[in-house]
Amino acid sequence: xxxxxxxxxxxxxxxxxxxxxxxxxxxxxxxxxxxxxxxxxxxxxxxxxxxxxxxxxxxxxxxxxxxxxxxxxxxxxxxxxxxxxxxxxxxxxxxxxxxxxxxxxxxxxxxxxxxxxxxxxxxxxxxxxxxxxxxxxxxxxxxxxxxxxxxxxxxxxxxxxxxxxxxxxxxxxxxxxxxxxxxxxxxxxxxxxxxxxxxxxxxxxxxxxxxxxxxxxxxxxxxxxxxxxxx
Length: 231
Hints:
Layout: E1 3-7, E2 12-19, E3 22-29, H1 34-49, E4 58-62, H2 68-85, E5 89-92, H3 94-103, E6 109-117, E7 120-129, E8 133-136, E9 141-143, E10 155-158, H4 161-164, E11 174-178, H5 185-197, H6 220-228
Parallel strand pairs: 1-4, 4-5, 6-10, 10-11
Antiparallel strand pairs: 1-2, 2-3, 6-7, 7-8, 7-9
Helix pairs in contact: 1-2, 3-5
């Protein structure tokens, strides 16, 4: 299998190419300009591997949750690449990518958590799975840190939601926290490969962003109330 993965949903902009010969990747943490960087990263990994886009078996696309503009960029770029080369696409979430990153160290249960701004976090619980790499313990959610709950004790926490809200590390059942981790296309490539092999590839026209909420910013009154609230 030859699978390209890409992600622009958070501060990290990353691309990975997984083939039978190994994994090639590019990653940069940038404040903005993801759209300008991502195609150059795609060209770089394809050139290093010596293959063309048409030689791929599919694309794993990050669908969020994350920054609205970044999520839209990730989906649109994946669609454009797949339409142009007649490739199937599989969606992978940022929370799934974080969870697999945490599982590399042997964690069987993971709480993945990203800062959603406006006093909220995107979060989801995951377990390792022999056939599917990982399985979600329920739907991904967005809400206040006080709403976050573990599916299983003995979990590893991962993601910048923990850096933004350190109180999450004190949840009963959290054993270790990787608070500064961001999603990476390398994990998305691994998840995407499993899904493509299982026949889950879809028409790129059917790819949809996963926003989890439709509000972009707080009002002035809401921001003031958030600053007054105890942490």
